[in-house]
Amino acid sequence: xxxxxxxxxxxxxxxxxxGAENSKAQSSGSSAEKAxxxxxxxxxxxxxxxxxxxxxxxxxxxxxxxxxxxxxxxADFDNFRKRTARQIDDNRKAVLExxxxxxxxxxxxxxxxxxxxxxxxxxxxxxxxxxxxxxxxFSILEKYGVEKINSEKASEFDPHRHEAIQHxxxxxxxxxxxxxxxxxxxxxNSKVIRPAMVSVARNPxxxxx
Length: 209
Hints:
Blueprint (H helix, E strand, L loop, with lengths): L5 H47 L2 H65 L3 H21 L2 E3 L13 E8 L8 E6 L2 E3 L2 E4 L1 E7 L1 H5 L1
Parallel strand pairs: 2-6
Antiparallel strand pairs: 1-4, 3-6, 4-5
């Protein structure tokens, strides 16, 4: 009959467990080393690929990148230009629409004045109605920055605001002054859009000098 020693049995089990742990640790260390080696090889291959590119190839790549950026900028600018043109056109149409609506009020009053004139017996009432229409018309012009150029008789002739269509020799008014106004002039926001057509005095005494 064989008798087992408990102490020997326990030592044998501990040796077995220790061997298994050492084997596992060696296996884990080997896997980590393989992963590090693989990563290192990949980085070296990438660096080698970059190093292998010729200067011409690098220039071509950079040139292509710059071309792409230029095309994108050109497309963005073209879109901006079209968008701005549409906004300007929309604003112009909105202003024109408002101007027309304002002058349609004058048209309505003009139609009513014509109907009243057909049955009016007092000519002064017709004249008064026309004067009211004229005031309404010019008030709308002033609303949009239109002003009548001063062209009163005997006022000084201004070549920037007046157009002389005739010179009249006279001593009744000073030389280079307005004698008659044939057509009124107008300015839009201080810019002359139509000069006043006038006749200008030419003093004979001044001409002889």
